[in-house]
Prior knowledge:
By secondary structure, the chain is an alpha/beta fold.
Amino acid sequence: MAEQKHNRLIHEKSPYLLQHATNPVDWYPWGEEAFKKAIKEDKPVFLSIGYSTCHWCHVMEKESFEDSAVAEILNTNFVPVKVDREERPDIDSIYMAVCQMIAGSGGWPLTVILKPDKKPFFAGTYFPKESRHGRMGLIDLLNKVNSLWNERRSEIDASANQITEALNETPQPVNDSNPGLEDFHTAYSQFESRFDSAHGGFGSAPKFPSPHNLIFLLRYFVLTGETKALEMAEKTLISMRLGDI
């Protein structure tokens, strides 16, 4: 039997990173080695963030990161970097904010493409290997980004600068102030407008379990008596249960 090959993640301690140590993708852990390579070879960085018990992280690994065709594209045209959000919540927090800013929502696996200076110019979550049902697949995405990188770099630079400026301008929470009732009403209205009454959850597929959202709805129900908040939480929990989550 041929000896199983490993990438650089075999030297990491994180269980999540070790799960990816036998992928054909030439993963780097987050660190200067990866970004020095990106600068030297003038390649964008493909950043994938997840955690060991994340369902869609495992799906994306099986579909794409264990696939030789995807690995060839990533290894040739990008510097692939894997991050465990439980090990590096600081990195996860920054790029999750970017994803929410660009896509309007976030989740894991978190997929971000960066310039070698760590400025992001694209962010999303789960991508299937092939495009389907109107959703872009990872292969098509990577090929499109590679073309833009080589042919329209100025547009990428402008986008990355715009995203970074917007992120820097985002107001930071004030620790000594508590949200008022009006803030709760505003947050509830946003949940109500994005609620999927047919399948539960919020927004469109793929969806990700967010316990803090459901806790908010239950507390809002207790605070205001708004039965719709309770119904949204119950519908979502029932759908999760029937969906084997």
